[in-house]
Structures are given as C-alpha cells and as structure tokens.
Amino acid sequence: SANDLKQLLFNINHKSYPAYKSARGAYQFPNYILSIDHVQGDPFAAPSRVSIHVTGKTAAFPPSLYDTYEKRIALQDYLLRQFARAIAPYSFRAKGSGKSGLLGVSRCGQEILERTACVFNAANGSLVLNMEIGFPANGRTIAAQELIRILFDFLPGCVEKSLFYHSLNPKTCAAVAALSEDQQAIRQQLKEKHLTAFVADGAILPRETGVSDLPMKHAVPFSSPDTLRVTLDLPNHGPISGMGIPLGVTLIVGGGFHGKSTLLQALEMGVYNHIAGDGREYVITDASAVKLRSEDSRNISNVDISLFIHDLPGKSDTTAFSTADASGSTSQAANVIEGMESGTGLFLIDEDTSATNFMVRDELMQRVVADSEEPITPFISRVRDLYEKLEISSILVAGSSGSYFHVADTVIQMKEYIPHDITERAKAIAAEFPPFTASVRPFALPSFQRHPLPDKVLTGSDRTKVKVMGQESILVNKSLTDLRAVEQLTDSEQLSGLAALLLEAAERAMDGKKTLIQVVDLLEKEMDEKGLSTFLAPGRPGDLARPRRQEIFACLNRCRNLKFR
Ligand code: ADP
Ligand code: MG
Fold first, then answer.
1. Class of the domain covering 174-446
2. In this structure, which ligand is nearest to the CA of 259?
3. Domain spans in the chain, listed from the N-terminal domain onward
4. Ligand 1 atom nearest to 265, measured from its CA
5. Strand partners, 120
6. Quick check: CB of 210 below 6 Å from ligand 1?
7. Is the Cβ atom of 215 under 6 angstroms away from ligand 1?
8. Does residue 69's CB lie within 6 angstroms of at least one atom of ligand 1?
9. Does residue 258 have its Cβ closer than 6 Å to ligand 1?
10. Is 207 in the pocket of ligand 1 (CB under 6 A)?
11. CB within 8 Å of 399: residues ≥ 6 apart
C-alpha cells in the first residue's frame, strides 16, 4: 500500500542513489494505483517512469465519451493535456542534483494522436497514465523527503483534478467527444460526396510562425468559392459549409505569397484531427493522403520506378531500382511508388519542393532533346492515369507551369488568401495552347513484390539502443533513418513509435518471405488488437504515438539497413 512506499522511502533516505531501485512496484493509493515501473540509475539519467492506474469506477467517465475509437483517442488526448496542465506548477526543479524533482508527461501539439502516455480501456472505463519523475537526490544521496512530497502531497491532487470525470467540466468533456464525432462525420461524408478534402468556411489555415503551430492571429479566415461550396450535415455542429475538393486532379495556382502553400500545408495536416481552437478543426483530408516531394540523397532499395524513369544511362534496371544517393527526380519517383504501395488515395505536391524535371518538360526542351533520349516520364504524363486507373487523386500547387491546366479537373486560384474557382476560364485559355504530350510508355502497375530483409544491425543484439532526434531522424543501434522529408510527421513521439515498429518489422521480416505490405499489415493488426502499448519495451524511449500506415511505409523504405529483394 501507499504506507509501505512511504516507509520504504523513509528507510532509504540519505542512502546512495541505487537504493531507489527497491521502490519499484505497485502501491495502492486512496484513489488509484501508483506504479513505479523503472527507476533511473543516477540523478542525471533519464527520469524514472511512473504510471497511474485509475479504475473505471473511480474515473467514472460516461461511455458516450469513449464508445468509438475516435472518441476514445480524443478523450485520452484531452486527459493528457489536463494532467500536463495540473503538474505544470511543479515543473520547476525541486532543489537537488541532476533531474531531481522533474515532472514530465507527453506534450501534445495541435493534432490529436493515439499515444501510449494515456490509455483508456473502453471495456471497463479504466485508464493508465504514464509519466516521468526525476527521483530527487543531493549529489548521489537519496533525498526521499522530496519524493514523498511529490508522490503524497502533490500528485494525488493532480490526478483527482485531471483524470476523474467528476472534477472536470462535463460540458468541455462533451465538447471533446462532439468535435471528434463531427470530424469523423466529415471523413465519412467526403467518401459519400466523392470529395478528397474539405476546408470549412471560417477556418484559420496559417500558423503563427515557422516554429509555432498555433493559429496566426488576425489571419484572413478561409472562404470558399460558390462553385465549390458544399454543406455537410454534422451530428453536433449541424450544417457546415466549406470548400469541397472533388476527387480527381486539382490544381492550386496564384501569384507568389497569395497563400497556396499555406492551403496545401493545411491539407497535409488534415489527415489528423485538430483540437478545438486550432482553426483547422474542420479541415479534413483523405486520411491516407501522402505529401510528395523530392528528397535528394535518400536511399532507395528495389523499387519499381519504371513508371517514371527508364533507360537510365549505365543501364541500371529501373523496375528494381536501388541507390544509396538518389537524385531529385528519382527520389520523387520512388516517393510516388512507395505512396501507392502504402495504399494512398491522394497525393499532395507543392512545386516549391518538387524536382522541376519530375513535374514537366517544356516544349522547347522537348524539341531539342528528343523524348527517346529522356529517361524521365514526368508526373504530368501519369497524373490522369493515377486517378482514372487507380483512383488516386492529386492536389498540386503549380504557380509557374501552365501545362497542368490541361490535365486538371479543378483549378483553384488563391488571391490574397481567398480561393477562386477558375476551372472554366483556365480550361478555355488552355485550349488555345497545345497540351503537353510526350511519347510515353503505357501505364503499368508497378510491382509491389518487395521482401524486406533486415541486416544484423537491426536484429543482431539483444540490447537494443534507440534514440529519437526530434522530428528529424531515428537511430536504432547504429542504423540512422532520416525522416526530415517525411513532412506529415508532426510529433517526435511518432518517431519513437516508428523506431519501435522498425524493430518489430525487422523481427517479422527475418525469414525474408513476407512482402513489405504483409509486414506492415501484421504490425497494424497488432496495434489495432492489442494497442500501441504492446510495442513499449524497456530501455527504449518512453512514450509512443501511433504513426499512420503511410509513415510506417516511409520509415521502413528509408531505413538503410532494411534491404528489399
Ligand atoms: P505562396 O505559396 O502562394 O507563395 P504562402 O502560402 O507561402 O504563399 O503564404 C505567404 C504568406 O502569407 C505566409 O507568410 C503566410 O503565413 C501568409 N498567409 C497565408 N495565408 C494567410 C491568411 N489566410 N491570412 C493571413 N496571412 C496568410
Ligand atoms: Mg509556396
């Protein structure tokens, strides 16, 4: 019980730091179980891991707040934010050495993600919250009275205030569930109405600064053009109007600084649900959307990029293309094929970050350099087939090349941050210009028969070392995977999740018999059935967020120690 813990802490007071290890275990407090799961080795090491377990009876959340997957994730997210707020006053370091008295819990950004930091059990309404506590010391001597103060005087109030339904504002809790239901309803109605994205009137798309993800103050609110305006009926919000982007090929044009990239970035993040007050609560994109960009120097292992690249000088086979150092166009080609392999229904492309020669070739260049001498089939020659044959839509920002007018179904012009539907006018003018034509090979579905085979770096040792560098890269043992170009990652905990999944994938792929698709299917099935927490392992980064299927593919495809055959 809690008293045993108190007694134990009294007994080890002033002893040398490792004596804290004896505190490991679970202790019944009046309203919850406190579990000391992992004790740091010294005051300067990563803080100790502690979890709080509340029964369904005590937490007492009405099932209407968690009876769907989406609502449960939104509730977990909300509770985590409330708990973070509750412990914030203590976030100064208690006096002591190293990380003494440091209290930490996952920091949530603007997106609502499934995280292991707070897990709600829908079967019985119980919940677990994981946190970090720097066990206090003076030098290397245990300062137990400080830990007693944290665990017995401070934490119980935080738990009660933030994790029990009766102390939370019921209206706010209901609003969290209602928003989640509405966001889910928009995703559903996108399908029914043959749309690929929805941007509500009044939405605030730009962010405060390059480093702050908060809404820009005094921004021009979004306002849809009449011809693209749709009204959706949401269960809680009621009718909501906004711009519906139809399936097919959509072009976003406009002068520089008129808000094209800002709109596209909002669509990129529309694969996630956003919290109330974000400005993008009702900006919803096909959840499988993949942002495509060029990515110089990435590695590519056995990808069939022949749809876009063929007859490379030096005769490397582009139906099974590998390189440790891709060019702009080959990297973007691989990104398309890998996106298709991940099952995407929508590509998002900004010319700002695309390889020019991958997007289009101008007529003059075509006349000087014959098609037969050009190994690249530009995206413009495939974008219609992608939609008509595979139902993959594309939304492209193209402010400088008019060639795409011919292949677009919808053309949107951004003017001072407001979209205008200029499809008819653009098509009429484009009719006076010859369309881009090139003699290209017939469209053929690439082969996805790729079998990942991990090398020893990933599977060899049983003492795995994992390190996550923000949102940039993951280091698993000595294998570094660069994820900087995977722009739809939005939280470093997703990278922790990817690191864990990479190790699991390596284990499942060891026999070399499964395709990449089969390996990812297995991992996703396991996450669906047992929850993300099954991939938490000792000695690895603490908390994970669940990455989308698309980012799992992106990560496995970029790992230099996973070779594909
Ligand atoms: P483009 O891609 O068309 O060149 P951007 O999307 O990069 O333009 O936007 C240019 C600038 O305008 C950015 O600094 C952005 O923050 C700002 N901006 C974008 N949308 C809005 C808006 N709705 N209200 C106010 N400022 C905006
Ligand atoms: Mg731009």
1. alpha beta
2. 1
3. 2-168, 174-446, 452-564
4. 6
5. 127
6. no
7. no
8. no
9. yes
10. no
11. 253, 254, 255, 256, 260, 351
Tell me how crowded residue 270 is: count the other CB atoms within 10 A of its CB: 27
Rounded-to-integer distance, Cα 533 and Cα 541, Å: 12
Which ligand 1 atom is the nearest neighbour of the CA of 204?
Answer: 23
Q: How far is CA 464 from CA 16, 226, 543, 553, in A?
A: 28, 56, 16, 22
Rounded to an integer, what distance in angstroms lies between the CA atom of residue 483 and that of residue 455? Answer: 20
Write down the ipTM of this complex.
0.99
Ligand 1 mutation target, pool 214, 217, 257, most atoms within 8 A of CB: 257
Residues 6+ apart with CB under 8 A from 477: 457, 458, 460, 461, 464, 465
> pLDDT (tens digit, 9 = 90+) per residue, 243-270?
999 999 999 999 999 999 999 999 999 9
Query: What spacing in Å lies between the alpha carbon of 271 and ligand 1's midpoint?
Result: 21
Neighbours of ion ligand 2 (CB under 5 A): 261, 352
220 lines ligand 1 (CB under 6 A): yes
pTM of the predicted model, to two decimals? 0.96
Residue 364 has a pLDDT of 80
Residues in the chain: 565
**Amino acid at position 405, single letter:** F
Find the mean pLDDT for residues 359-373: 83
Q: Please say whether the beta carbons of 402 and 351 come within 8 A.
A: no
Question: DSSP letter at 154?
Answer: I
444-494 pLDDT tens trace: 999 999 999 999 889 866 678 899 999 999 999 899 999 999 999 999 999
pLDDT on residue 462: 67
